[in-house]
Amino acid sequence: GLWIALIASLGVNVFLVGWVASSWVYGPRFGLAGRHAAGPSMPFQHRSAVRAIGGENRQTVQRIWRESLPEFRLRTEALRQAHAGMRTVFAGDQADAKAMTEAVAALKDKANGMFDHVNATLLKIAEALPPDARKAYFNAGFARGRGRGERDRRNPDR
């Protein structure tokens, strides 16, 4: 019974990590709020944030984001491979606890690496922007829940 619970729990966790990571980078794919809306479960929305700034600041942010994409793609592929490896181990004929534990650890390591890279990119962006543009960018990117996003983008001080 505990093995079944462990496998179900790990499956749900893997699904959630993938969904959050994908939504963080590409925006939500479905839902009532629309493709680029940010809800409480989506921590940062780069596309919405970029729309909140303009001119040279927008170009700076886009340059930093583009420079980080090759590394992000590598980390995303490593996460996919770790996920496939975990699926293979968990779907195997024999339940090998050591192999399952190693597969879960590998997946967590790859997911943490991906999130660390995205956070490092956000730190570079924060350091490169002047205070007003930084405030507008991050207020728009970290929307404050359903129904308040538009008001927050129009008035970042709220």
What does the model show?
The chain is mostly helical. The protein contains six helices and no strands. The chain has helices at residues 2-26, 46-51, 55-90, 97-128, 131-141, 149-154. Helix 3 packs antiparallel against helix 4. The longest helix is centred in the middle third of the chain and has 36 residues, at 55-90. The radius of gyration is 19 Å and the shape is elongated.
Quickly list its features.
158 residues; mainly alpha; 73% helix; elongated; disordered C terminus
Largest sheet, in brief, is: none
Topology, number of strands = 0
Proportion of residues in helical segments = over 70%
Mean pLDDT: 79
Order of helices and strands: HHHHHH
The percentage of residues in β strands lies in: under 5%
What value does the Rg take, in angstroms?
A: 19 Å
Shape label: elongated
Which spans of ≥5 residues are poorly predicted at pLDDT below 50? 31-42, 146-158
Short characterization:
With 158 residues, the protein is mainly alpha-helical.
